[in-house]
């Protein structure tokens, strides 16, 4: 019978990567947002091209039905090129969507708190609860005052990545990471 280590190696590696990414984000906060927007633009172009190819391959067999793929593909390519050419426009959209994701993520983490308590103990439970309540409050603040998001998004991303990394390391060292 193979005995498992009480240490969560995967969780610790994820934690270290998140902390390093957080430090990089803090050292280049505006570059993080622009880089993210450009990557999203590239993904949109690739997905748009894939939709257009799907239309070309399927259109002759099914008639008018795949027209949605063609329209979606064209819009995807246009949106992607716009994001890559004008990352500031993407940053404004990101400033609206980021707080919504932030709130949803914190709610998701709060919903699994009881499992964290059972697996990792009270310390990880209270740490996770505190960080996610702060995250919820921060998300609401970012929705109420979106200019804060625009000005500070790189810093927020960096700090949050570091906090997530610390949380992952806590889970790894508590022995709970070996069970995931």
What is the strand and helix layout of this fold?
Blueprint: H1 9-27, H2 29-62, H3 67-85, H4 87-111, H5 113-120, H6 122-144, H7 146-174
Helix pairs in contact: 1-2, 1-7, 2-3, 2-4, 2-7, 3-4, 4-6, 4-7, 5-6, 6-7
Question: Could you describe the 3D structure shown?
Answer:
29% of the residues are buried. The protein is mainly alpha-helical. Helix content is 87%, strand content 0%. The model has no long low-confidence stretch (mean pLDDT 79). It has helices spanning 9-27, 29-62, 67-85, 87-111, 113-120, 122-144, 146-174. The chain is built from seven helices and no strands. The chain has one domain (9-179). The longest helix has 34 residues, at 29-62.
Query: How large, in whole angstroms, is the Cα Rg?
Result: 21 Å
Q: Can you tell me the number of structural domains? A: 1
Helix content: over 70%
Q: Regions with pLDDT < 50 over 5+ consecutive residues?
A: none
Describe the main β-sheet briefly.
none
DSSP strand tally? 0
Q: Report the end-to-end length measured between terminal Cα atoms.
A: 19 Å
Helix segment count? 7
Mean pLDDT: 79
Give descriptors for this structure:
7 helices, globular, 180 residues
In short:
The chain has seven helices and no strands. Helix content is 87%, strand content 0%.
């Amino acid at each position: 019978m193979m005995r498992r280590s009480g240490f969560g190696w995967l969780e610790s590696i994820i934690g270290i990567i998140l902390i390093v990414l957080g430090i990089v984000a803090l050292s280049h906060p505006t570059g993080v947002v622009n880089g993210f927007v450009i990557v999203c633009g590239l993904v949109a172009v690739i997905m748009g091209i894939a939709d257009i190819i799907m239309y070309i391959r399927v259109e002759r067999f099914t008639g008018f039905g795949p027209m949605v793929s063609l329209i979606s593909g064209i819009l995807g390519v246009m949106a992607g090129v716009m994001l890559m050419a004008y990352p500031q426009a993407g940053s404004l959209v990101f400033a609206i969507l980021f707080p919504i994701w932030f709130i949803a993520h914190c709610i998701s983490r709060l919903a699994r708190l009881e499992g964290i308590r059972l697996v990792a103990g009270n310390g990880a439970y209270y740490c996770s609860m505190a960080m996610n309540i702060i995250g919820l409050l921060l998300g609401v603040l970012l929705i109420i005052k979106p200019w804060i998001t625009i000005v500070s998004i790189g810093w927020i991303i960096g700090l949050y990545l570091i906090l997530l990394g610390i949380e992952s390391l806590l889970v790894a060292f508590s022995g709970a990471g070996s069970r995931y």
